[in-house]
Structure formats: structure tokens, C-alpha cells
Specification:
alpha+beta; 3-stranded antiparallel β-sheet; 3 helices; 8 strands; elongated
């Protein structure tokens, strides 16, 4: 009986600790963030091949104040694209889109890293 109670107490304390962590998220919610990203990110200057698809993962930092900025872009298929220009475009979007709710761990606001996959479909691929 003591083992069951000890396990129950351990489980409850672990559950309470897990509830004391929250990830960073856009102020208006992740679904609206994705919608805004799709609708507002302009790629005209990137000189994309209309017959190719592009796959990236971009990592961005969310500061304790909720400011987001791209820290790294992973080019999964090594497509020939100007990653610095893409990074600038993504940073412009993040700046225009406003702050995020920062992550909280053990009741303390902390900076965090967020990774987002990005797939850019060529014009011919959309048909």
C-alpha cells in the first residue's frame, strides 16, 4: 500500500512539474500565424524555379520579451537559393507579425528556440 501511495505522489508531482512548462507561441495563435505566413510572405526576389519545390526548416529564437528572429535555416535538399535573402524575408515577416508569448519554465519567462518546416511549392506543382 505504501508503494502505491509513493508512486501516486511521484506521479502527481511529475504531472504538476510538467504543467509548469509552457512553450512559446504566437500571440494570436499558431493557426493564424501559419495562415499569415502563407498569405503574406513574398518570395518574388528569391528567383525560385517555378518547376521546383523547396523544403526548409527554419529555427528562430523567441526572447524573454517575445521577440522572434530567425537564427538558422536548414536547407534539406541543398537547393540553390539565397538563404540570407530568405532569412531576411522571414525576419521581416516575424517583425511585422508582432511578438510571441514567451516560453515559461517553473514560473519563469525564458527564451526558447522554435523550429518550423517550410515547403515552397513551384507554380507548376500547384496544379
Amino acid at each position: 500500500m505504501k508503494k502505491i501511495i509513493a508512486l501516486l505522489v511521484l506521479f502527481l508531482s511529475l504531472t504538476m512539474q510538467a504543467q509548469d512548462v509552457s512553450k512559446a507561441e504566437p500571440v494570436r495563435g499558431i493557426q493564424i500565424f501559419y495562415k499569415d505566413l502563407i498569405n503574406n510572405l513574398k518570395f518574388d526576389e528569391l528567383e525560385l524555379n517555378s518547376h521546383e519545390n523547396y523544403y526548409f526548416k527554419f529555427k528562430f529564437q523567441i526572447s524573454e520579451k517575445g521577440q522572434a528572429s530567425v537564427s538558422e535555416i536548414l536547407n534539406e535538399y541543398e537547393s540553390e537559393i539565397d538563404l540570407n535573402l530568405l532569412k531576411n524575408k522571414l525576419n521581416e515577416f516575424l517583425t511585422e507579425n508582432g511578438n510571441w508569448k514567451p516560453a515559461v519554465k517553473d514560473g519563469i519567462v525564458v527564451s526558447s528556440v522554435y523550429t518550423l518546416p517550410l515547403k515552397i511549392l513551384g507554380i507548376e506543382s500547384k496544379k
